[in-house]
Amino acid sequence: MAISKINPQHTVPTIDDNGFHLWESRAIMIYLQNQYGKNDSLYPRDPKKRAVVDQRLYFDLGTLYARFADYYYPVIFAGASYDPAKLEKINEAMDIFESLLANSPYAAGDHLTLADLSLVASISTWEIMGYDLSPYKNIRSWYAKVKQTAPGYEEANGKNVLLFKQLVDELLANKK
Amino acid sequence: MGVTLYHYPISAPSRGALLAAKVVGVDVDVQIVDLFKKEQLKAEFIKINPQHTVPTLVDGDVVIWDSHAIAAYLASTYAKDKSLYPSDPKERAVIDQRLYFDCGTLHPRIRTICFPVLFRGEDQIYDEHKTPLEEALGFLDVFLEGNDFVAGNKLTIADCSLVATISGIAAVGWNISPYANVSAWVSRCSLAIPGYAEANQEGAEAFGKAVRSKLAPGQL
Ligand SMILES: N[C@@H](CCC(=O)N[C@@H](CS)C(=O)NCC(=O)O)C(=O)O
Ligand SMILES: N[C@@H](CCC(=O)N[C@@H](CS)C(=O)NCC(=O)O)C(=O)O
Prior knowledge:
A: Glutathione S-transferase Yfyf (Class Pi), Chain A, domain 2; two-stranded antiparallel sheet; B: Glutathione S-transferase Yfyf (Class Pi), Chain A, domain 2; 8 helices; binds glutathione; Glutathione-S-Trfase_C_sf (chain B); GST_C (chain B)
């Protein structure tokens, strides 16, 4: 089936839940939690706690993921060369994330939430693209913790990051 | 202690959060952070929000930023009218999708054009940036097909965010008339949102004027 039939924006991920069509990965995570979650720990009902999770999700989409995509995608998909100014914007976003983790073992407090799942998909992708995480102590220990505590991490993300890397290597090899 | 909103009127996300406060009906104490004077980089502000963006909301012991998270928080905490951000998972999901669309697609595509003009001495608009914006306007037009508002037939917080964004680029002089659903919806929002003229239109026009004054002739 053509994805544009159910999602005019034709992006993945898109879900079809018995005829209910939804896209935007973070909106999907929230929907699955609200509709099927057994308790609210991944996405607390308390508005103040929830707002922190939301803030991290928007930070991932609008800042962290966005700046990495802006640096890597033109190189991977359009044969551009790396732009150091864009790398500087990434480093700035990473500094912010590092500071958010200073007093907080997980992205939005003391336990795993949807924010961690979204952010770990970003960080693991850029790590495999060769971004150096070593200056970011808090991010490194957060990353190790999320890999261990996110249920099904390897199956849902770890393996696929490797596939992404293979795809990128093929694309870059074809350009040469 | 009341609710404080750190705000700058030319910023679309900032106006979006203020519009959300208006529709929710919560009084906020508006504190101006002048981005042209780089007031967001002052130590006091970075202590509040390390990402130093407007809007930022302070409510008692909680600090919230990102306009979309602020809108959701205000609606969840203070709205009497639950239809602004319903708790039904499906209804809410559509609103969330629209909010993420604003945050990740529409607003960044406008920012790519306008930020360099406002802050980096750019005076051109490039075709490679026009096309993605036209595409995003087209998506919004499709979302509005058969709907009065962006997430259905009722006004929600997603309208606040998106209309703040669209009214800014319209004030720059971008032609949105090819997007008939979008044009009609902007007028509808201007009537449906209390205090729209002051909370949004003035800042959108100031943004439009600032961008236009720095563009070379014939860019639009
Ligand atoms: N903000 C969206 C981004 C989705 C997105 O851009 N997906 C890309 C792949 S990473 C896509 O499907 N592109 C195909 C297209 O735009 O036609 C989300 O988080 O779901
Ligand atoms: N996704 C954020 C975007 C906020 C944002 O980028 N704000 C800009 C003004 S439009 C800002 O405060 N920039 C100042 C800075 O980054 O130093 C939101 O919706 O709040």
